Amino acid sequence: MTFLSGLSAFPITPADDAGRVDTAALRGLVRRLVSARVDSIGLLGSTGIYMYLTREERRRAIEAAQEEAAGAMPVIVGVGALRTDDAIKLAQDARGIGAAAGLLSPVSYTPLSDEEVFEHFSVVTRESSLPIIIYDNPGTTHFRFTPELVARLARVPGIAGIKNPADEPARTAQHLSVQRAAVPAGFSIGYSADWNCTEAMLMGAHTWYSVLGGLFPKACLRIVRAAQRGETDAARRLDDELAPIWDLFKRYSSLRTIYALIDMLDICRINPPRPILALSEAARKEIAAVLTRMPGLE
Fold first, then answer.
1. Which residue is catalytic, options 50, 52, 109, 163?
2. What is the pLDDT of residues 241-252, one digit of tens each?
3. Residue 259 annotated in active site
4. What is the β-pairing status of strands 188-192 and 159-165?
5. Exposed, middle or buried by CB within 10 Å (0-12, 13-18, 19+), for 69?
6. Torsion of CA 230, 236, 242, 243, to 10 degrees
7. Catalytic entry in 135, 191, 252, 259
8. Tally of structural domains, the chain
C-alpha cells in the first residue's frame, strides 16, 4: 500500500511581519481542508514559508494544524534546514506533535554532492524516526536528484516517497517511468507545479502536492478523483477550467498569487515574508478579474 496518495493540499502559513504565526488564521485554512476531505495536508512547505520561520514558530504552526485536523487526515510537515542537526530537531518536533511524515529538501548555501544529500537524508530519517518524503525542488535548492540517488534513498528505511516538480507531459511521462522502475513497490511518487499535475496524475502518479489545493481544495479534488477513476476527459476539462489560475501562477508565482487571493477573499490579511513583496496594484486587479470570472471556485 502506498503511504501517500491523492491530493496533498499546501496552505500558506499566515504570519506577521516579525514572523509570528497567526494560529487562528492558520486554523481557518486547515478547517477548509478538513471540511473538503483532502487526502493529506502539506504544512510548512515552500508556500508555507518554512524557511522564513523559527523553530518555535514552526512548532506553533504544527500544533495548531494538528489540533484542527484532529486526526482526520495525515499532516505532512516541512522539516528542511541548512544544517543537518537542525533538520533532525525539526523532524523530531514534528514527530512529537503528531505529524505523519516530514518533507525534507536539500537546502544549502554551498552546492551539495549526491553523497552529502544521501547522508543528510539518511541521518535525519534515522535520528528523528519520522517517515520522510524527499522534496525535489531544483528551482529553489539548485540540486537535482538523479534516478540513481532516488533509487538509493528509496531503500533507506523510513524514506517513504518523493515530491517531484512536474514538467510538460512528455517529459513527465518519461520521468515517471524511470522513477517508477527505480523505487520499491509502495514508494509514493508525487508531483508539484499545479498546472502540470493533472497529466501527471493521469499517468499514474500517486500524489498531487498542490498549492491551489491549499486554498481551493474542492476544485483540485474533483480533478484528482476523476484521474483516479480513469476519467481522462473529465479530468482535463476540469483542469482547463483552472487555466486562468495556472496562467497567474506562472506569471506571478503561485506563492504571490495565493497571498493576493487570500487577501481578496478576506480570509486573512497578511503579507508574504520580506524580502518577498506583495504584488502590484496592476497585478492584483488582474487577479481580481480572474476571480470574478470564476465564481464557483472552491
1. 163
2. 999 999 999 999
3. no
4. parallel
5. buried
6. 150
7. 135
8. 1
